[in-house]
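Entry:
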Amino acid sequence: MRSNTLAALEAALDELSAERLDGMFGPQLLERLGDLLTAQNRLAAEVARTVRQCELAGAADVDGKASMAAWLRGHARFSAAAANRVVVAGRTMEQLPVLAAAAAAGEVSAEAVSAVAPVASAENVAAADASGIDLADIDQLLTDVARNQFHPVLRRAVAHYLDRLDPDGTEPDPTDQRSLTWSKHADGSVTGRLELDPVGAEKAMAAVESIVQASRPAGDTRTRAQQQGDAFVQLCDNSFAAGRLPVLRTQKPHVVVTIPIEDLVDPSTGQGAADLGFGATISAARARWLACDGNVTRIVIGPEGQPLDLGRSHRVVPHHLRRAVEARDGGCIFAGCDAPSHWCDVHHSAIPRGPRRAGESWGGGGPSAHQGPPRVPGGTTTRWPMAHLAT
């Protein structure tokens, strides 16, 4: 049965939602927003308190749920992370009454309660008791920080306390905090999520930053995020070129492109003509671009799909030609780019010049050193700086 208090709250919310906002000025809107945020904090605290009481009463069993987190996922349609945050907030406020009072008054947000939550975990409460630390003092201090300081300051204060609680920390196992996941999209592009421990993060950021700072051509219009993405790919290119990566399926790891010979030699563009090793599909033009500094292997497939002949792999740009181009160019020849030669591929001009000669690209031009497609003022806006040299 709904209480009169909740009915009055619902009526107040209905009245709020009916108010017109388009006639309000900035100060009036900000004042309204501040009041609403305070109310939101108070409601979040009340929700967490109620969820904790449901835990203690075993209320989730009534609906056949094993826990209140499961109940929130099933009935409130919460994500697992959001459900866990509410459950942990209720437990935290039970252990830290000063913080609970501030949350109930709307003085601290639900996010602040979540930031303080590790202090109230059973393990850390036991450690504080064993060390003779008065948890009430910590409750008061952290609540004051949550009231008066920005959120990053609160997080640092909590981390400082936990570090002093266990100065040596647990035996470090960086693999527990490291993960990398890929999410592939329909067009073959990938979105990734990276999580690293502090030491691993420092290594990764230092490696990426070294590439970012070394590759800053004049007229570069890339955003910081694009620069870091390009640097990550460049690190992979450098690792491939060094030849020191572990063997993958009996071969050194490399980019595999499968394309019909007709599309490879046809100078016109063609969408979805080539397949990559991990399942992406790319255009014929991009496949020809990759082939400029790669090995080409001819495979003859019979009418029933059976391989009839596997030819030898041929280097499109042989090693002696690469050395000659490196000696001539010294590095990337894109205007303003000083990338060294070992960052560059040997590419060919896309300008057709009659019948293709031995050693020339599928586009018909001559070899050049480059880093990738152009990004110059007034030019195209694809990903990385690049240059072409005619021969």
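Strands lie at 179-184, 190-195, 257-258, 274-276, 281-282, 295-301, 307-315, 345-348, 367-370.
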